[in-house]
């Protein structure tokens, strides 16, 4: 058991060299390896195989709800004539899925608390334990007008109580993680940084948008400042990874696309703080930074694409939706000139690619769920099964 926990913390196993994936959970490295020998080992219970990375699905669906709500309500994108039923359908699916995934993971916490604790120690999976809080914020921000007008007053998109209810636990978890990055040794950011580390700090930026929507500019600036500060640190650390052991296993390479999400969300957050129809030079800097990072990643896109389908493929959905939303805000702030059409074209491109990724991920996820292979077996959690007989 000690050896398995050491794998979580990134320490090398005794008597051997680590390869690129040893610092991460073996199931992330060999997602498909256990599926070819179902008769050679006992099938794990579903709850034990259910991982925190499943919350990445909620981020994908929540981002689609927000994206389609923006496409339907944006003056610049009015020529699309998006039916109001489409954002409503995405929103209802997102709420239902968040409820199902959250309840399932709570059951895992009750039945297998030690497995949840090991995921909390994992340098990749621990980031996704923060995801449900800002996935809920995404759904609140992406709620259609038919819903918000009935719950709140007409024209109000989110209530301050809702923003606080999800932002406070989110901030508490993030501060705990940031303190480990600063004070920790094995948990320090220089030893554990991966593109998945951005999942944690993205919550600050989403929370900033929520506070800006309710008119609380100072809390919005506070959350935006914390998010930007740690984004710069994480981004710099990822560019200067000192060791080959910090490379992602091949199954997790789609998470590299998360690199362009923080500047895109920051552009939307700063525009929201400035007020409706405002997209100043700083917002443009963030939006263009996201676009530039996309071009950098696209230059070697073959590294991210492979035919196996782990849950990390859901990492393609949210970043592209985030860039699309930021350029929708940009287009709304421009007069009807050629620049507005360029912003519209960029927003449409990322909207389409995000939707395609969503459809493909949804279909393959449902197919693998029906086959029972969406959540493959895991060597570390298997030790818990053996321990309990």
What are the main properties of this structure?
single chain, about 400 residues, mainly alpha, about 0% strand, transmembrane, cell membrane, SLAC1/Mae1/Ssu1/TehA, transport, transmembrane helix
Write down the domain tally.
Answer: 1
CATH topology: Glycosyltransferase
Would you identify the CATH architecture? Answer: Alpha/alpha barrel
Number of beta strands: 0
Question: Which word captures the global form?
Answer: globular
Q: Which CATH C-level class is it?
A: Mainly Alpha
Number of helices: 18
Let me know the average pLDDT.
82
Can you give the helix content as a percent range?
A: 55-70%
Order of helices and strands: HHHHHHHHHHHHHHHHHH
Described by strand count, sense and barrel closure, the largest sheet is:
none
Spell out the CATH superfamily.
Answer: Voltage-dependent anion channel
Q: Measured on Cα atoms, how large is the radius of gyration?
A: 21 Å
Weakly predicted, low-confidence segments:
1-5, 7-40
Region (Disordered): 1-39
Keywords: Cell membrane, Ion transport, Membrane, Transmembrane, Transmembrane helix, Transport
Subcellular location: Cell membrane; Endomembrane system
Transmembrane segments: 46-68, 88-107, 128-145, 157-178, 199-216, 222-240, 252-270, 282-299, 311-330, 342-367
